[in-house]
Amino acid sequence: MQNQNNPLAAIPPVTRNVLIAMLVMFVVQQVFSSNFIYRYFPLYPINSDYFYPWQLITYSLLHGNFMHLFFNGFAIWMFGSQIEHYWGEKKYGLYLIVCIIGAALANALLSEAPAIGISGAVYGLLVAYGMMWPNHTIYLVIPPIPMKAKYFVLIFAGIALISSINPSQDGIAHIAHLGGALTGFLLIQYWRGKPPFKW
After folding, report:
1. Which residues are bridge partners to 146 per DSSP?
2. Main-chain dihedrals φ then ψ at residue 52, nearest 5 degrees
3. What is d(CA 82, CA 86) in angstroms, rounded to the nearest whole number?
4. Is the peptide bond before 13 cis (omega within 30 degrees of 0)?
5. 3 in helix, strand or coil?
6. How far is CA 76 from CA 39, 85, 144, 166, in A?
């Protein structure tokens, strides 16, 4: 029986634990803002002297500032909770980890810039949501208009693609976003037995 006085109890376990881990690591970043954290835990290019294999996971729990943390956390709560309820803990947890690693590999192999944040996996969740519930309406904050999930996903994927082809110095890991989205799409297609895995 869920504790009605605990709002976290309504969040499914994997999503809840990811949110808690993100918050704990953000506090650690603020309290122990040392060279050690930023030397070993962000994601560096794979050909860099600073790259270590565990960064393919640890980068996702670090965030640049509170707004970065808030928007990623909000997206994981909003989309991840529903997906986890639908898929169950094991399948959802596997999907999330694969998207985190897929986004990391894309950025580590194709970008010269280091990356932090779980945004790549968020793009994977957006793709999953759009593929499973394409006609569900999402109410955007900016701009404040309702939009079907399939169009929402296509717009954000298009932005990530264009931004990856024409990178700018905006500090955003667009290649990781695109990598997370593509990884999520391919994994769902694999589970469904559809192209490019079965014709």
Report:
1. 139
2. -135, 145
3. 6
4. no
5. coil
6. 27, 13, 20, 27
- CA-wise closest residue to 75 among 125, 127, 25: 125
Residue 169: pLDDT band (50, 70, 90) is: low
| Nearest to 158, CA basis, from 185, 181, 187, 133 | 181
Class of residue 128 by CB neighbours under 10 A (exposed 0-12, middle 13-18, buried 19+): buried
Global pTM reads: 0.91
Q: Residue with structure tokens 């931004």?
A: 163
Q: Give the count of beta carbons closer than 10 Å to the beta carbon of residue 168.
A: 8
The span from the CA of 165 to the CA of 174, in Å, is 9
Answer yes or no: are the C-beta atoms of 118 and 61 closer than 8 Å. yes
Strands 146-148 and 137-139: antiparallel
How far apart, in whole angstroms, are the C-alpha atoms of residue 199 and residue 193?
Answer: 8
pLDDT per residue over 104-137, tens digit each? 999 999 998 899 999 999 999 999 999 999 999 9
In sequence order, the 6+-apart residues with CB closer than 8 A to the CB of 158 are: none
Nearest to 37 by CA among 114, 106, 93: 114
Residue whose entry in the numeric block shows the structure tokens 């169009």: 151
Give the count of beta carbons closer than 10 Å to the beta carbon of residue 14. 24
